[in-house]
Input
Amino acid sequence: MRNLSNNLLSQLYFQESDDPFLMLVTLTHSSFGVLYFVNNMEQITSRGNVYLPFPMKMTLPTDDGESLREVTMEFDNVSLELIEEMRTVTDYIDVTIEMVLASAPDDVEIELGELKIKDVSYNQSEVRARLFMDDFLNTEMTGEKYTPSNFPDIFN
Output
């Protein structure tokens, strides 16, 4: 259960709202540094970072406690800059998604952190990325077996 601010709840319950709910996306990788994007027509400054306007949409994961958390992001390919950055990467890109109200960009209402881009596809009109949260519960651990012959000291 998420705790949402009263301001956000009041905007969500209004039939019409003049305070848009914005998605701030931060992409981080050693090859290109940090990129900040917002799904808005103008740039937004949040906590000292300038988020550049970039048309995008997101499909959120099912929050049922059982499914793997996987997010799909679609960026309009209006500029080849994003593809050029993605082409240079051969490992995961770190992603943070934050939701804010335009009137309070420093107050993060919802945050999806520790996401990584797992798969990128693109064409002339869009860049599609599948993001996942590190599934540490299903990560393989050491293949060693703790037996008296391998680890005699722990059985004394």
